[in-house]
Amino acid sequence: ATERTFSILKPDATKRNLTGAVNAVIEKAGLRIVGQRRIQMSQAQAETFYAIHKERPFFGELVTFMTSGPVVVQVLEGENAVAKYREVMGATNPAQAAEGTIRKTFSESVGENTVHGSDSVENAKIEIAQFFQDGDIVG
Ligand code: CMP
């Protein structure tokens, strides 16, 4: 089915001027960027977005990193977009990511792993609603 997923190009991507390079991989995989905005995440936004990781030892580090520079928030659309994007991103830890994936190609550590993608259609809806209004997504 045609789905939408939520994506973030993280501060390590924008810092290294990799927005276009990562978007090229996304588009080459057949996903369409139907919403996109470059923002500076506030601490409150990052804490809300990552609330499920609140008890993890790396939570503070994660929020600090995600607010350390601009991010690009995106809505990606395509056939099985949620699973397709997770395949294109590769494993959370770039050391374990498959050849040709975004994280294998661009990421330097598990913390600074270049991209976020929703893990389910349900979470994609929640995450998209946190950063986009209906009129800002054009399919
Ligand atoms: P993401 O898909 O954005 O969701 C949670 C994030 O936590 C994950 O990507 C990683 O960037 C980060 N993360 C996961 N494990 C660790 C870790 N061991 N140390 C630092 N950050 C981590």
TrEMBL record:
Residues in Nucleoside diphosphate kinase-like domain copies: 2-139
Biological process terms in GO annotation: CTP biosynthetic process; GTP biosynthetic process; UTP biosynthetic process
GO MF entry, a single one: ATP binding
Pfam families: NDK (PF00334)
Listed transmembrane segments: none
Entries under PROSITE patterns matching the protein: NDPK (PS00469), NDPK_LIKE (PS51374)
Reaction(s) the record says it catalyses: a ribonucleoside 5'-diphosphate + ATP = a ribonucleoside 5'-triphosphate + ADP; a 2'-deoxyribonucleoside 5'-diphosphate + ATP = a 2'-deoxyribonucleoside 5'-triphosphate + ADP
Subcellular localization: Cytoplasm
UniProt feature coiled coil, ranges: none
EC main group: transferase
E.C. no: 2.7.4.6
One cellular component (GO) term of this entry: cytoplasm
Key word Oxidoreductase present: no
Cofactor(s) needed: Mg(2+)
Keyword vocabulary terms for this entry: ATP-binding, Cytoplasm, Kinase, Magnesium, Metal-binding, Nucleotide metabolism, Nucleotide-binding, Phosphoprotein, Transferase
InterPro entries: NDK-like_dom (IPR034907), NDK-like_dom_sf (IPR036850), Nucleoside_diP_kinase (IPR001564), Nucleoside_diP_kinase_AS (IPR023005)
Residues forming the catalytic site: 116
UniProt binding sites for ATP: 10, 58, 86, 92, 103, 113
Top-level taxon of the source organism: Bacteria
Record's subunit section: Homotetramer.
Protein name (database record): Nucleoside diphosphate kinase
The organism of origin for this protein: Methylobacterium soli
